[in-house]
Write a structure and sequence with these properties.
Elements lengths: L39 H23 L2 H7 L5 H17 L1 H12 L1 H24 L20 H30 L7 H35 L2 H21 L13 H14 L25 E2 L22 H4 L6 H19 L1 H7 L2 H10 L1 E2 L1 E3 L2 E2 L7 H26 L7 H32 L10 E4 L4 H24 L6 H33 L14 H23 L7 E2 L10
Parallel strand pairs: 2-5
Antiparallel strand pairs: 1-6, 3-4
Helix pairs in contact: 1-6, 1-7, 1-8, 2-3, 3-6, 3-13, 3-17, 4-5, 4-6, 4-17, 5-6, 5-8, 6-17, 7-8, 7-14, 7-16, 11-18, 12-17, 12-18, 14-16, 15-16, 15-18, 16-17
Length: 591
């Protein structure tokens, strides 16, 4: 199957005019684009605006999902937490599929547009499931606390709607961020610095959407109605889709390339076929094919890691080969180096998985913790427990400008690095902050349990513990600090260090850290539940949180995170960053 858009017959543009973008970007019809009429901050700010509306929609569903599952769908705390984790995991893993489709066939623009329609359909169905009596379970009886259980049809319709949202997000999420970064020309020094700032400001947009969701929509969901509470995210997504479509003429596009998985497979097949050859020696010919540079203007310089793969570039008996067979017997240096890049990224990806497990706690157990505490702020006005997630957003909103405008210039003057500190240093600082967050969460939970014991509320799960919910604020703020460093660092790292033709896949790999982390969190909960039931020990995740021991769980996560941080540091210390030769503007020859 050939890529359908944009049509890029001549991606290596001649640089006759300084007005033309130099990195091979085109318009939707595959024509060269002007630097002054397309892309840059105007286009990327529009895309950030789309992300704000989309994140408002997503967090309007996800931030309070555990409350809906326990209060409306009548699930236990542990079951609801596992369902939220599995759904979040699927939503974070599907971007791998969306990125593959975008990078190989449709291009980012069309993938975003089509997946947004699926996303919107899921939101509409979700709103119907919470609004129409035939689709939603009957309300609880206040006097007796009796809550009728939903029918199989109601449960099925709700979860189908929920996973339609996950499917739509799978195409939308990895492509939109990569598409925003594509609006800056990497061959232009000024725009290259703007791209670094773009990755800092992107989470600012995400957290703006999250802040509105948790401060307004969650209150509406718990105090006005779930139908309206899900309807507002639906309207936000409609606005996002409309705004995105209206900016079509402003965007710069990258050409879809050959499937990244095929390119990777070709290198391994070619290297295995030549396994008996010695590693490249001087005088052996290296094959370079113009088609290998479809959709890219830069080639990668050779490195000394994974030398076995270099055998794929040795040219032997090519005189009468057809192109289709050559592709699986001989590869370009750039193609081999692309595979090396991916292999170098994998250890870092594995070492960051524990961060994904910790990240999964904020919308699940943190929220359930807060639901048992005193949530009053003025008089008898109570805030939803999930509202405290806004402190993560506020931390990011405050710290991103400080980081981008103050820290980076100061650090740049000391280190000489355009980013101030390296990407891997930035990620490591955030991982350390997430460990502190788990330690503070465990200590706060111990205080909450002590308060329940002192006031005789151990056996009264529906009573409010006289301990302010704002005791949870420090763990949320530390979470926000970790986002500024680790989350933004991971986004930039997996975009920057992936091959140019696989950058949507790079964003998807970053998202998969959170997806796998959610799955691992769900598996960890199941293992602990099984061990507790076998030994007849106290349940860490009892429905009555006053008898549960979330503090044990948080201490366990802190210990595991410290272990993984040590592994991460050892991998990061020997990581080799991508080496690029820019401005490849003419065909290479066999030499």
């Amino acid at each position: 199957m050939e890529p359908i858009s944009p049509s890029c017959e001549s991606p290596l543009l001649s640089h006759v005019s300084t007005n033309i973008v130099k990195d091979g970007s085109t318009d939707l019809q595959g024509r060269p684009v002007s630097r002054f009429l397309t892309g840059g901050w105007p286009a990327s700010l529009l895309i950030i605006g789309v992300e704000i509306a989309e994140r408002l929609a997503y967090y309007g569903i996800s931030a309070n999902l555990i409350t809906y599952l326990t209060n409306v769908m009548q699930q236990t705390t542990a079951t609801a937490a596992k369902n939220v984790n599995v759904w979040s995991g699927v939503a974070s893993m599907l971007p791998l599929l969306g990125a593959f489709v975008a990078d190989s066939y449709l291009g980012r623009y069309w993938t975003i547009l089509l997946s947004s329609l699926v996303y919107l359909l899921g939101l509409i169905c979700l709103t119907l499931s919470a609004s129409l009596p035939s689709f939603s379970p009957p309300p609880c009886e206040d006097a007796s606390y009796f809550c009728p259980r939903p029918s199989a049809f109601q449960v099925g319709f709700f979860f189908i709607s929920l996973y339609l949202v996950a499917l739509g997000q799978g195409g939308h999420k990895p492509c939109l961020q990569a598409f925003g970064a594509d609006q800056f020309d990497e061959e232009d020094p000024t725009e290259r610095k703007y791209k670094i700032s773009f990755f800092n400001w992107w989470p600012f947009g995400i957290c703006s959407g999250l802040f509105v969701s948790v401060s307004v929509i969650l209150y509406i969901q718990e105090n006005v109605g779930w139908g309206l509470g899900f309807g507002i995210p639906t309207m936000a997504m409609t606005i996002a889709l409309t705004v995105f479509f209206c900016g079509t003429k402003m965007y710069r596009h990258k050409c879809p390339s050959t499937s990244p998985f095929i390119r990777i497979a070709q290198v391994f097949v070619a290297a295995i076929r030549k396994r008996n050859l010695s590693v490249l020696s001087q005088g052996q010919r290296v094959y370079v094919n113009q088609d290998a540079f479809r959709g890219e203007t830069r080639k990668l310089l050779p490195t000394n890691q994974f030398r076995f793969l270099d055998k794929a570039t040795v040219a032997i008996d090519l005189d009468h080969e057809q192109k289709t067979s050559i592709d699986w017997k001989l590869c370009t240096i750039t193609q081999v180096e692309e595979v090396k890049l991916v292999l170098r990224l994998l250890p870092i990806w594995v070492a960051c998985l524990m961060y994904g497990v910790v990240y999964a706690q904020s919308p699940t157990f943190f929220t359930k913790q807060g639901s048992t505490m005193d949530r009053r702020i003025i008089g008898d006005f109570k805030i939803p427990a999930a509202t405290l997630q806004s402190f993560i957003s506020l931390s990011v909103i405050v710290l991103v400008p400080v980081y981008d405008r103050i820290f980076v210039p100061l650090a740049r003057g000391i280190t000489g690095n355009d980013r101030g500190i390296t990407l891997l240093q930035r990620i490591g600082v955030g991982m350390f902050s997430s460990i502190l967050s788990m330690i503070i969460a465990a200590m706060t939970e111990m205080k909450r349990l002590q308060a329940a014991k002192e006031y005789g509320l151990i056996d009264m799960p529906n009573e409010t513990i006289p301990l302010s919910i704002f005791w949870l604020v420090p763990q949320y703020i530390l979470f926000g600090i970790s986002e500024v460093f680790t989350m933004i660092g991971l986004q930039d790292y997996f975009y920057d260090q992936m091959p140019d033709t696989m950058r949507s896949l790079g964003i998807a790999l970053y998202l998969s850290v959170l997806g796998i982390g959610s799955f691992l969190s769900s598996i960890l909960i199941s293992i602990i539940e099984e061990l507790n039931s076998r030994g007849k020990r106290q349940d860490w995740f009892a429905n009555n949180l006053n008898k549960a021991h979330l503090d044990y769980f948080y201490w366990l996560l802190a210990a595991l995170s410290a272990l993984f941080l040590g592994i991460y540091v050892s991998f990061a210390s020997c990581f080799i960053y991508k080496k690029v030769e820019s401005n490849v503007c003419k065909d290479e020859e066999i030499h």
